[in-house]
Each structure stands twice: as structure tokens, then as C-alpha cells.
Amino acid sequence: MALATLVHPTGSHPASWLHPSAYPGASMDIGYYRDMARLAERGMFDLFFIADTPAARTSQLEAYARFPLFMNVFEPLTLLAALAGATTYIGLGGTASTSFFEPYNVARQFASLDHISGGRAAWNVVTSANDFAARNFGLDRLPPHGDRYERAREFVDVVRKLWDTWEDGAFLRDRESGLFFDPAKQHPVAHEGRHFRVNGALNIERVPQGQPVIIQAGASDTGREFAAETAELVFASDSTLEAGQRFYADLKGRMARHGRPPEALKVLAGLPAIVADSEQEAEDTYQTLQALIHPDVGRMRLGMDLEADLSGLPLDEPIPPERIPASANLHKAYFEHILGMIREGLTLRQLYMRYERGNRTIRGTPKQVADHMEEWFTSGAADGFMLTFSLLPRGMADFIEKVVPELQRRGLVKREWRGRTLRENVGLERPGHRRQ
Amino acid sequence: MALATLVHPTGSHPASWLHPSAYPGASMDIGYYRDMARLAERGMFDLFFIADTPAARTSQLEAYARFPLFMNVFEPLTLLAALAGATTYIGLGGTASTSFFEPYNVARQFASLDHISGGRAAWNVVTSANDFAARNFGLDRLPPHGDRYERAREFVDVVRKLWDTWEDGAFLRDRESGLFFDPAKQHPVAHEGRHFRVNGALNIERVPQGQPVIIQAGASDTGREFAAETAELVFASDSTLEAGQRFYADLKGRMARHGRPPEALKVLAGLPAIVADSEQEAEDTYQTLQALIHPDVGRMRLGMDLEADLSGLPLDEPIPPERIPASANLHKAYFEHILGMIREGLTLRQLYMRYERGNRTIRGTPKQVADHMEEWFTSGAADGFMLTFSLLPRGMADFIEKVVPELQRRGLVKREWRGRTLRENVGLERPGHRRQ
Ligand SMILES: Cc1cc2nc3c(=O)[nH]c(=O)nc-3n(C[C@H](O)[C@H](O)[C@H](O)COP(=O)(O)O)c2cc1C
Ligand SMILES: Cc1cc2nc3c(=O)[nH]c(=O)nc-3n(C[C@H](O)[C@H](O)[C@H](O)COP(=O)(O)O)c2cc1C
């Protein structure tokens, strides 16, 4: 199975930076990231992944000051390039938004990262769900969901054409003939689309991986169709085995339409995990973190996904029905999940304490976590996992010390690297060059 | 004096890659760049600089196959981030174009590089003079010179505001109060201009250098005015001492108008140098390289700056007058320089063999090169130098072995690093934060 990890500086828990064992300077310490990437590599993780949004919040700062998600972080491409030299095998994945960037720059930077890392680059294609980002790029707000995905499809199409500007072996570097490259092996892009006009050639040769790996995490119908057409790694976020199996089957089922075999895409199930020698110990770690959530942060995170203003409401009463919108506009799945809990009659405090974005954190022994992973892997719900750790680097170190050896014993995780590229290690074929 | 070097993979000579001592794989070998950056650092260079244009040529490929400038290179930001971990003191400068990129991304990537490198980032602001680049970003051709500089001014203004999103010390990381940052120290940008609308906050804290260093190399009147207003390092390219002094005095003279003291900007004179123990040996190295220039390359490079099609013309006759345009559209100075040589009655071959873009390569002994540098430095033509080497890494190694110690003996080059940031080492003040 493929192992990936999504890294937030001090961990994925909203209060992680407040934990006594956390290093509050983490987000701006390149040495810290280097150590963590090396740790993940020693633990046989295939992918070290940096999520991103190109914006810092400018409102609700009282709450964000206590929950500084994406407020002060390295930019992913520069970060990953810096990590390339500190690691040898682990894949280096990062997010870049198709809504605000230019295809030429994205194509070029990921290609450059693939060369710098010797074939370990992966691009997480997102359309961004954040009006703050839109305002940094000349817009008042985010374009509608469908338009964003339309642009994303065209964006990826252009990027892939750019990646195939040069055939493999185009650069001869032949002093005898005096030819540095073979002019016949350049295939300039001539793209005139609804969103982009790109007519030219990428100024970097075809990468070690043929093309960098494409990651996608869309959950909507449009998002899934896009993933089936174009993604090679997909981050899933279902919380039950049945939902995971449905998602897996649905996604793989869509691929034939696009002429792709199911193994050309690996589903990585999201897995927030706290591992300890006893279940109680894992639970204690979780509860220690939960107790550190400030009510302002709880309110804000819940309100964001409920798309409601919860300020001023008493914590120990249910949310008044008139504050709850009739339907969701941003993350439908999160919204429905919260509505379900509201129907159970929970108070505001109980709601935000129980609510986790995406799937529930599994708290358990190494055996329990390994069993969970084995079950998902062997019953058609996942080709691998995207691990997130509430507390870093401790959570990752625990997982590597306790769970990875168990998975290796079961033959589920490799003991040796299969190769030097991300594609080789997760079992994705190197794409052939398509003449343009 | 400040020392900088502009690095092209195998050297700045158009035929460098053909030289027997060159490493033809240089442009895609990160280890090669790492070694070169370390070499420059050992030689007390303050700045390792990567020029750039976001395009590969798609025409005249027969000539470009023999002179592969920018056809296959790392992208500068990812490259510099990768070099940060391999070096400790040397500044890391790169080009990003204001004509095709977005201020938010540029601000963020250079800020990230500054944090990753501990205060060593520098941005060379260019407007690009290349229609191939324009076509990669939705345009048919480059906007006019004046428009490009207007956009560049606004671009830099926005970037600087973004860099001052957060005051120094805004990030408290204080577990006791539970405040990661002080909301009062965030100053979002509210920019509505002719070219950009940016309303938001940079998601990275103020950098070690306060702001990354701004480099500029404009030679036109508009370019100089822009430099006087905003640049901190300026690459000059005059070929005589008198011209250098005029440029220096002109540029520094323009600064008062913008409320800047002259020492806030350092002029680095371009210096292509070949050093050897005897003048003859240096000349031989130069002539060996010259002899490797293929006639197609000579024609193409000359034709580019003469803005004329020279194909099919006999090499050993002068260029027929009807092929020569009445005036220049791109690089006026290069054009005039070629016209001057044409008036001397040179043949096409003599022209391209004698023509160098920018200033003439100095070929000499360590003493001759050091004398040249001392003269320019002490007579008001330069605060430092931007060295280019015909052949890399050899040319740089020779310079470091033979010239740097001589400059140190004369007290012109430091023996110890003054600090860990580029600003400290070249003597530029850390800019204070301007409230927005
Ligand atoms: C593991 C994971 C990582 C994600 N990373 C990012 C990210 O870095 N940036 C971003 O804007 N969205 C990110 N997303 C959001 C998805 O790209 C997507 O927008 C979301 O799942 C909603 O699906 P939809 O776009 O199909 O509506 C991530 C989602 C998951 C599950
Ligand atoms: C040392 C040096 C380095 C330069 N690097 C670049 C570069 O990397 N990219 C680019 O487009 N232009 C580069 N230029 C060109 C200048 O930015 C500028 O466009 C040129 O000198 C003409 O001046 P003008 O823009 O004022 O007309 C460089 C010039 C010099 C002298």
C-alpha cells in the first residue's frame, strides 16, 4: 500500500501548537521541515505532502490568532525544492491552485522540482474554496464551482502539453555534431481555449518521471469526474468503510470512459491517526488536545462549514434554528455532517468538540490501526493512505515506530524502496510522450 | 566592494558548452549547481545570480540547437531554494518578470526563499524583452516598453506592500495567552490600480531581511528612473570607465528625488572576465572559445540585436545596407554598437566574432583584472561587480584562486562575512516596516 502524509507545521489538530510538546516556531523553521521529511522517509512514506491556499485570513482574526492555519507558512514549491536535497526517495507533493495561477509557471516549477529531486514531484490540483485567495488575484470572490472545474480541466490540459514540449532524449548534448538538442524533438504547444492561450515551448526537458504525478482531492461529482480523467493519486475522505468502498468503486468505474485502466489511479484514504501502546493512552492524547480548543476557535471552525455566524451564541445550548442556513454553498458534505449532529440535539460546545473536518481521528493501538488499514486496503476501499497526525513530529514518529513495522510484517508496506522516483514507489507507470 | 556572479550552466560564452572542459549536462544537474554555489561562497561572492526568461525559442531552432541559452534550465525559485540548504552566507538572486507573473505569487515565493535561506533572497525585477514569453501567457506580443515599466512599478509597489503585511514581531507564538499572532500587527493590502487589484494579506511573516533585496538592470531612461526609485542592487553594463562613471552619477543623482540616500543603492558593474597567469594565456582561452562559434549562431545573435534577417548572406562580405533597419525597437544600445562596427566596414564574420552583448570580456592577469576593478571602484563607476565567466566552473575557480586574494590584500574584498544576510554583507540597511 502507498503511504502519504499531509504535514501541517505542528500537526493537524486545531490546537496542536498549544500542546506542551509542540514547537511553536515550526512553521518558519526549514530545519524542522527537513527533519520531518527525513523522518517520513525513514518510515517508508512514499509522499510528503504540503497543502496550501494562497491567502491569509483578514477577518475573524481573534479566532485565527488562536488557530493559525495557513497564516504563516512556507510557499510549497520553494519548500519542497529545499527538501529535495535533504531526502533521496520520498515523493514531494504540493498544492497549486488552477484558479489563480498561470499554467506556464505551474508546469515549469513542478518540472523543475521533478528534475531537482530526481523524479519525486507531485502536483495537487485544486480549484481553491476561499474568497480570501480570490481577492489576492484581482477577483472579488471565487468563481462558481462549475466554472472553477472547467478552468481546472483546461489548465491541466495545457500543463500536460507543456510537459511534453520535448520528447525524451531531445537533448543530445553532442559536442561532435555541435547539436545540444534535436530541433525535430521540440513540440511547441498551440493552445487557444476559453481560459488560456498558450503558444510556446517549456524551457525545461522532459522530467525523470515523464510527467510529475497529478494528485486530486475533489469530492463532488464534478471533482470525481475530473479525477477519473486526470488524477493519479486521489485523496479520499470518507469516514466509514462502506462509504470508502462506494467512493473507490465509483471513481475507478468512471475511468474506463476516459480510456484509463483502474490501476492508473491510486486512491489514498484520509486517515487521521493517534497511535499509542494502549487505546486509553491514545484517547488521552486526543482529549488533551481537544481540551485546548478555545471556544472562539470552535465556534469559528463550526461556523465556517455551517456557513453561519455563531458569534454571541451561548455555548451550552443548541444553535437556534434561525441561524442555520437552508443549504450549503461551499462544502456540502461538511455541512450535512454538522446538520446531522444538530438534529441529535447537541449544544454548540458539544458540536464543535465532536466536529472534525473530514473523517474522525482514529485513536488506538498499533494493532488496531494496522487492522483498520488492512481492512480498507483488502476490501476495495483504498490503495493506500494519507496519514495526518494531530501532533507533529511526535504523532508521525509514533506511527513509524509502532505501526509501520507491523504493516511490514503483514507484507502490506515495502521494506525496500523500489526505485528513486515517486512513480516507481507507488506503482504508477511513467507516461509515454504524446506528440502534439 | 560587493561581488556578484551571474551563472549560466556552462558559462556565459555562446560556445561554452562546446569547450572540451565543459560539462554538457550542467543545466539539469542540481549537484553541479550546488558545487558552483559553494565555490562562489568560498570565494566570498555576495550574490549567486540566476537570470531568466519564461520561454524557450520555437523558431531558428537550427541556430538555437547550437547555442542553447535558456532552452533547458531549472526554474529560478525552485533552484535557489534547493541551493539554500547547500550554502550559508551567499545571497541567492533570481529573475522574475513583472509582465507575466502575479504580485502575490512573486511576493510569496521570494519571502519564502528569504525565510528558507535565513535572509539571503534577492529579486531581479525585469519586464522581459521577449515575444516568446508573451505568447506563453496569453499575449500575442510584448506590450510596449513604457507600458511594461508602468506595470512593473505598480507590481513592485504591490509586492512591497504584501511584504509588509505583518509587522516585525507580529507572530507571538505565546502559549500562555493562547495567541499565535497579534491581530493588530496584520496590515492587509488594499490595492486598486491600473494593472492589479490585490486585497488581502500575505500568508508569511516579515522576512529576516525585512524585505528581500530588489535588483534591477534597466538601461533606458525609464529603466534608470525605476531603479533610482526602487532598486537596491543595479547591474550596470557600460564598457568604458567614463560611461560607467556617467551611469553611476546619473543613477545616484536620480535618487534624491525619491527620497533615497545614494548608499541605499549599489551599482554592480558587469564584468565578463577571463583570468590567467599571463595575458596571452587568457587571450588563448578566449580565442579557443571564439573559434567554436558556429556561423549560424553568429548570424543569429548578431541579427537578433540588429533586428535584421541575416540568413543567406555571405560571411566574408559586409552586410548589404538594405538589410539594416533604420532604427532599433528592442535594445537600442546593442543596435547602435553594431551599427558603429558596420561603419568600420567589417564583414559579417568579423562582426559576429567581435560583437559581444554588453561589455567586452576582459582578458588578463590577476593584477590587470584587480587593477581594473580597483580603478572602477575608487573612481566612482561601481560599488561592486557582477562577474560573468565565459567558461564554468573553471573561469570562476580561476578568479577565486587568483583575483580574490589580490583584492583582499588591497583591502577591497572582505576576508570574513559581516553577517548571515545578503543585506549585511553588501551593506544595505534592513528596511523598516511601513504601516499601510
Ligand atoms: C487530503 C486533502 C487535501 C486537500 N488539500 C487541499 C489544498 O491543499 N488546497 C485546497 O484548496 N484544497 C484542498 N483540498 C480540497 C479539495 O481539493 C476539494 O476542493 C474538496 O475536497 C471539495 O471537493 P470539490 O472541489 O469536488 O467540491 C484537500 C482535500 C483533501 C481531502
Ligand atoms: C546583468 C544583467 C542581467 C539581466 N538579467 C535579465 C534577466 O534575467 N531577464 C530579463 O528578461 N532581462 C534581464 N536583463 C535585461 C534588463 O532587465 C533590461 O531589460 C535591459 O538591460 C534593457 O533595459 P531597459 O529595460 O531599461 O530597456 C539583464 C540585464 C543585465 C545587464
Number of domains of chain A: 2
> Largest interface, with Cβ-Cβ < 8 Å?
A-B, 78 and 79 residues
* Bound ions, cofactors and other small molecules, one mention each: flavin mononucleotide
Shape of chain A: globular
Spatial strand sequence of the major β-sheet of chain A: 1-2-3-4-9-10-11-13
Distance from N terminus to C terminus of chain A (CA atoms, Å) equals 35 Å
- Quaternary state of the chains: homodimer
Using DSSP, what is the number of strands of chain A? 13
Strand content of chain A: 5-15%
Helix content percent band of chain A: 25-40%
Quickly name the level 1 CATH class of the largest domain in chain A.
Alpha Beta
What is the CATH topology classification name of the largest domain in chain A?
TIM Barrel
Cα-based radius of gyration of chain A, to the nearest Å: 22 Å
Give the low-pLDDT segments of chain A: none
CATH architecture level-2 label of the largest domain in chain A: Alpha-Beta Barrel
Number of helices of chain A: 15
Mean pLDDT of chain A: 96
Pfam families (chains A, B): Bac_luciferase
Family (chains A, B): Belongs to the NtaA/SnaA/DszA monooxygenase family.
Organism (chains A, B): Belnapia arida
Keywords (chains A, B): Flavoprotein, FMN, Monooxygenase, Oxidoreductase
